[in-house]
Design brief:
2 copies of one chain form a homodimer. Helix content of chain A is about 40%, strand content about 20%. By secondary structure, the first copy, chain A, is of the alpha+beta class. Chain A has a domain of about 90 residues: Winged helix-like DNA-binding domain superfamily/Winged helix DNA-binding domain (Arc Repressor Mutant, subunit A), CATH 1.10.10.10. In chain A, the strands form 2 sheets. In chain A, strands 1-2 form a two-stranded antiparallel sheet. In chain A, strand 3 and strand 4 form a beta hairpin. Chain A starts with a helix and ends in a 10-residue tail after the last strand. The mean pLDDT of chain A is about 95. Chains A and B meet through helix 2, helix 3, helix 7, strand 3 and strand 4 of A and helix 2, helix 3, helix 7, strand 3 and strand 4 of B. Chain A binds a DNA duplex through helix 4 and helix 5.
DNA sequence: GTCGTGGGTTCCAATTTGGAACTTGCTTCA
DNA sequence: TGAAGCAAGTTCCAAATTGGAACCCACGAC
């Protein structure tokens, strides 16, 4: 299986991974959520090679996660902003950060804190069930085939 | 920056990405959550080369996400199971699946459904604030440096 | 003793990365 | 008028990683 076949799999994990399943892409997205928008700034902050950065930004734009917005003419200059589709990756980012905070934090504690503007407090993300509102964990979930399952449903 | 420097960054995203920020690793984990445990079964289901599979499983074991458990002697055979640390990746997996379901589903709909055993209904994961219990989205969160921030706090 | 099975390892070619220099359009400063 | 700077890329090449396929080993079954 190659990158370009991945998004054709009948699996939402595979399809999401085809967009974000890459080290640099995830780090670029981290910066996007920290309000970084310009090529040079991504490059300096991440230490990624310009070549790869251009490639990853291009792919994210093609995937509809970022959009190029001109912020000046003569010479034309663009910046990259999260689209609504990109903003929807927020729970995924929070889940990544939270796992890192929980399992990989150094002895000095977590590098960043997240404050919920609505209640004013620093918080952790909690995943709950959309139906009953109770927290969900791995053992409390049963997976079964949906309408888009391949004929030989996996699992 | 190279793979082996990534886990030293003072950033929970970078540190998590150093463990799971790889296409095959995420697909291996998908299978783990679908109760796949054995080398051959991973290999057949994923179409990954045996070489890479061995490498990714080794790395996941080293990261404490999976553990090797002997399921027979003579000849010794092992299977790979999620540890508690691995099970904690469940919200992350759910977030990946949910984004794919929302933004990448084919016209036939989502491939898999998730049933919450506690309430018996198919559900979507919702990310809420651990303090007030209300849903959280990108625009409602303010990020600020925590105790583990580098001296020049990023953002 | 030959076949099958599970869990790997080895080898090599093809692809992807990393690093550094070069390009393009336009502005500013001397 | 010319030199220098800036943002956003692109080009080139060496080094690392992947994909594909074959090979290995311990055992058990036929």
């Amino acid at each position: 299986m190659r990158w370009d076949e991945l998004d054709k799999e009948a699996c939402s994990v595979a399809r999401t991974v085809s967009v974000i399943g890459d080290r640099w892409t995830l780090l670029v997205l981290r910066e996007c959520f920290l309000r970084v928008r310009r090529f040079e700034e991504f490059q300096t902050r991440l230490g990624i090679t310009r070549h790869l950065l251009a490639d990853r930004l291009r792919k994210l734009v093609k995937a509809g996660v970022l959009q190029k917005v001109a912020y000046q003419d003569r010479p034309k200059r663009y910046e990259y902003r999260l689209t609504d589709r990109g903003l929807d990756l927020h729970p995924l980012m929070m889940a990544i950060v939270h796992w890192g905070d929980t399992h990989m934090a150094g002895r000095r504690g977590r590098p960043l804190l997240h404050r919920h503007k609505a209640c004013g407090q620093d918080f952790d993300p909690v995943t709950v069930c959309s139906q009953c509102g109770e927290p969900v964990d791995a053992r409390g979930v049963h997976v079964h085939p949906g309408p888009g399952a391949p004929r030989m449903a996996r699992a």
